[in-house]
Design a protein that fits this description.
Elements lengths: L5 E2 L8 E2 L10 H11 L10 H15 L7 E5 L5 H6 L5 E6 L2 H12 L7 E5 L13 E7 L8 H11 E10 L6 H10 L14 H10 L18
Length: 230
C-alpha cells in the first residue's frame, strides 16, 4: 500500500502522485462502492505496472512450481491481472470479487485472452464463496486483497472449505510488522490505509489466522509490495 498512490493525468502527461487519504467505511456496501468507483480506470498504484506484475507473478510461480492442471481460484481478483497470467497453467481458472464493476472489467479482459472458455469471473465475496463447491479447488490465490477483507477469519474458513485435500493457499499481503507501517509512516503522519477497515496483519497474526482455519503454513517468505522494502 503506501502513501503515494498514482492518479492519471491528461493523455501524454506523466501520472500525478497524490498523498493517500483513508476513506471512512461504515459497512460492506461502502467497501463495494469504493472498489466499484476504481474499476473503470483501475491501474497499478505502486510503481511500474509491468515490472511489479512480473515480480509478483515470479513469486507466485515459485510457490506453484510443478502445479499443472486442476482448478485455480483467485479471491479478490479485481481486474484479474494475476488470474489471466496464470490461467494457462490450469485446466480451469475462477476469479471472484465483491465488486460488480471490477468483475465486469475482468470479464471484458477475459474475452480477449487465450483459453477464455476455461476462465470464469464471478461476483462472490471471499467471506462467502457461495458459487464454489466444497473440496473443489487445487490452488486459492489472494494478492494484495486480504488486507481489505474485513472478516478475515471467515475468509480463511472458506478457503479451507473449498480446497481439495493437499490443496494450496497462496496469499501475498503487506506485513503489518514492517517498520514503514509501524514506525515510519506514523512518525511522518502519513496514511497507510485506503479504507478505515483495512488491517495489515503481522507475520504472527497471519499464521494464527490460518492455523485457526485448519490451514498449515508450509512456507513463509517476505516480499516487496512496492519497489523498495515492504
Amino acid at each position: 500500500c503506501g502513501a503515494l498512490p498514482v492518479r492519471s493525468g491528461p493523455p501524454g502527461e506523466a501520472p500525478v502522485r497524490t498523498r493517500l487519504t483513508t476513506r471512512n467505511v461504515r459497512n460492506p456496501e461502502n467497501v463495494v462502492r469504493h472498489f466499484d468507483s476504481l474499476a473503470p480506470h483501475y491501474h497499478e498504484a505502486h510503481g511500474c505496472a509491468e515490472k511489479l506484475l512480473s515480480y509478483r507473478l515470479g513469486i507466485i510461480r515459485g510457490f506453484l512450481a510443478g502445479a499443472q492442471g486442476g482448478t485455480l481460484l483467485e479471491i479478490g481478483c479485481g481486474t484479474a491481472s494475476h488470474l489471466l497470467a496464470l490461467a494457462g497453467q490450469f485446466a480451469h481458472a475462477i476469479g471472484t470479487d465483491m465488486s460488480p464493476a471490477m468483475v465486469n472489467v475482468a470479464r471484458r479482459r477475459t474475452e480477449g485472452s487465450p483459453g477464455s472458455d476455461r476462465i470464469s469471473i464471478r461476483v462472490d465475496p471471499a467471506e462467502e464463496l457461495a458459487t464454489i463447491g466444497d473440496s473443489s479447488i487445487d490452488v486459492v490465490l489472494c494478492v494484495g486483497a486480504l488486507e481489505h477483507m474485513v472478516q478475515k477469519d471467515r475468509v480463511a474458513r472458506q478457503v479451507h472449505r473449498v480446497l481439495k485435500p493437499g490443496g494450496m493457499f497462496v496469499v501475498l499481503t503487506p506485513n503489518g510488522g514492517y517498520c514503514w507501517y509501524r514506525h515510519v509512516a506514523p512518525a511522518l503522519r502519513l496514511e497507510i490505509r485506503h479504507l478505515s477497515t483495512d488491517q495489515f496483519l503481522t507475520a504472527g497474526e497471519l499464521e494464527r489466522l490460518l492455523r485457526c482455519a485448519n490451514l498449515k503454513t508450509v512456507a513463509h517468505r517476505y516480499w516487496r509490495f512496492v519497489p523498495h522494502g515492504d
